[in-house]
From TrEMBL:
Organism: Pseudopedobacter beijingensis
Protein name (record): DUF5606 domain-containing protein
Coiled-coil residues: none
Feature: compositional bias, Basic residues: 158-173
Segments forming domain DUF6852: 53-119
Domain DUF5606 per the UniProt entry, residue ranges: 5-50
Length: 173
């Protein structure tokens, strides 16, 4: 699942895809059928990248992407975001049994279910996540380290140590 570039905007329903940036803010495109484009100014609105959202759990927080993956393989039908709070809580307890029930509110569960219903119809739902920059950088660092090791091994094999000449200092009276 590739949720890179998907954002939620405070005060706006639905999800948006980050298209670009200009002087006044970010250019977003709606993921609904209308494909509405809008410019969001960061001084007046808050953007939340789905990639950065985590859910409180007992041991450690879980990424939203992992929650979506669990919902994807869930065997029963996923309830609507308009269902009763008890139904949504029971569903979320099945999908994420270790979530912190005190800190994860019903409104959060409604948002997650709503977002899932939006993105499950998109092609990026089945798309693999591209390699991140940190993964690419780690690969580059590993390759550089390997080449440096190979070069130093080759240099050691080619060079032989010569005995150092002794220096004597003459004293002047």
């Amino acid at each position: 699942m590739n949720i890179t570039g998907l954002v939620a905007v405070s005060g706006k329903p639905g999800l948006f895809k980050l298209v670009g940036q200009n002087k006044s803010g970010f250019i977003l495109e709606g993921l609904d059928a209308q494909k509405l484009k809008l410019v969001v100014n960061l001084s007046t609105s808050k953007l939340a990248s789905l990639e950065d959202i985590t859910i409180y759990c007992d041991d450690e927080d879980r990424r939203l992407k992992d929650i979506f993956e669990a919902m994807k393989v869930y065997s029963k039908t996923i309830p609507s975001s308009k269902e009763d709070a008890k139904v949504l809580r029971a569903f979320f307890a099945d999908v994420v049994p270790d979530h912190d029930q005190e800190r994860v509110y019903t409104s959060d569960i409604k948002k997650i279910v709503n977002w899932f219903s939006i993105i499950k119809e998109l092609p990026l739902f089945d798309e693999e996540e591209p390699a991140t920059e940190t993964q690419a950088e780690e690969t580059k660092v590993e390759l550089v380290e390997e080449s440096v090791k190979e070069e130093s091994t080759e240099k050691k094999a080619k060079t032989t140590k010569k005995p150092a000449a002794k220096k004597t200092a003459a004293k002047k009276d």
